[in-house]
């Protein structure tokens, strides 16, 4: 059976899932996170430690190098393989993470548009000087998609036109699932703490990361000849500390910016997950853990 444990970053959902999986011995965790797929991005993504990976089997960690792009469609594909392998062993699947789109892709088995690199490159080159013209083109070719995009959001405009040209379908035809919540074979449990507590947890965790060498981790990534892919470079915390290493701000300013960005991320994630009426919410680690145990027991009945 399949259960998703969801919630915003620093909520404690991963600890809940790990402890239940460790105690039961018949659960394996699929990490639903856009950044833990990257090798070398360890501290700032809160990856499970080597000791934790000895206790519980984890999937979808360290799949690619940080200079490589890794799309939600690729994530969906490898998640399906991991899910089937887990169930073939007679174990329960625990999807655990806070990357909402990736979660919906695996929980609801979305129809995801492909990637068309040559088309994207051509559109990106045009977007440098012709963004208004590209927006006008999108409005003509897919008015619904255009209505969902800010006119200065080059990345989304380019992506929409890339899919329209590459697939021959309206970009908006792929997105209906985001606004609907149908039946799913995956049960969902959410951990959501009060915002004041979350803000404190975010800061405490980040300060611990800094002591553990997070800044050095970011420096080492920047010094690698491959650099960081567009996706990896946007990781909260990494982006702000990269500015410090590039001499654009001092260390404390970078930390402050990272903390503020993480607090904003928490609020975005909360809004995303709260829209899903299928999630059963809990506010404490103990209640979430007890109910996850109960859900798994009921699945076995």
What does this structure look like?
This protein is α/β, with parallel strands linked by helices. It folds into 2 domains: about 1-110 and about 180-300, Rossmann fold (3-Layer(aba) Sandwich), CATH 3.40.50.300; about 115-175, Histone, subunit A, CATH 1.10.20.140. The protein has helices at about 15-25, 50-55, 70-90, 100-105, 115-140, 145, 155-165, 195-210, 215-225, 230-235, 240-245, 250-275, 285-300, and strands at about 1-5, 25-30, 60, 90-95, 185-190, 280. It has a 6-stranded parallel β-sheet, sandwiched between helices. Helix 5 packs across helix 7 (about 155-165) and helix 11 (about 240-245) runs antiparallel to helix 12. The chain is globular, with a radius of gyration of 20 Å. The model has no long low-confidence stretch (mean pLDDT about 95).
Helices and strands, with pairings:
Blueprint: E1 2-6, H1 13-24, E2 27-31, H2 50-55, E3 58-59, H3 72-88, E4 92-97, H4 100-107, H5 117-141, H6 143-147, H7 154-167, E5 186-191, H8 195-212, H9 214-223, H10 230-233, H11 238-245, H12 251-274, E6 279-282, H13 285-299
Parallel strand pairs: 1-4, 1-5, 2-3, 2-4, 5-6
Helix pairs in contact: 1-13, 3-4, 5-7, 8-12, 9-11, 11-12
């Amino acid at each position: 059976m399949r259960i998703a444990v969801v919630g915003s970053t620093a909520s404690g959902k991963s600890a809940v899932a790990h402890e239940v999986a460790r105690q039961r011995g018949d659960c394996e965790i699929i990490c639903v996170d856009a950044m833990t797929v990257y090798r070398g991005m360890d501290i700032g993504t809160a990856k499970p430690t080597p000791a934790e990976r000895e206790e519980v089997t984890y999937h979808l960690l360290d799949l690619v190098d940080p200079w490589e792009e890794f799309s939600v469609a690729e994530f969906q594909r490898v998640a399906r393989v991991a899910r089937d392998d887990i169930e073939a062993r007679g174990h329960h699947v625990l999807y655990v993470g806070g990357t909402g789109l990736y979660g919906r892709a695996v929980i609801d088995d979305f129809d995801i548009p492909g990637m068309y690199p040559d088309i994207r490159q051509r559109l990106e080159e045009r977007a440098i000087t012709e963004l208004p013209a590209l927006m006008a083109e999108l409005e003509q070719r897919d008015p619904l998609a255009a209505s969902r995009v800010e006119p200065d959001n080059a990345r989304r405009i380019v992506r929409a036109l890339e899919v329209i040209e590459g697939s021959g379908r309206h970009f908006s035809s792929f997105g209906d699932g985001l606004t609907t919540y149908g039946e799913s074979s995956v049960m969902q449990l959410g951990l959501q703490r009060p915002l004041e507590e979350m803000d404190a947890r975010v800061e405490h965790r980040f300060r611990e990361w800094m002591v553990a060498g997070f800044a050095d981790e970011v420096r080492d990534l920047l010094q690698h000849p491959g650099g960081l892919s567009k996706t990896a470079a946007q990781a909260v915390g990494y982006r702000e500390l990269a500015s410090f290493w590039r001499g654009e701000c001092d260390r404390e300013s970078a930390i402050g910016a990272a903390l503020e960005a993480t607090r904003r991320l928490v609020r975005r994630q909360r809004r995303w997950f709260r829209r899903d009426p299928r999630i059963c919410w809990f506010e404490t680690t103990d209640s979430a853990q007890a109910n996850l145990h109960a859900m798994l027991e009921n699945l076995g009945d």
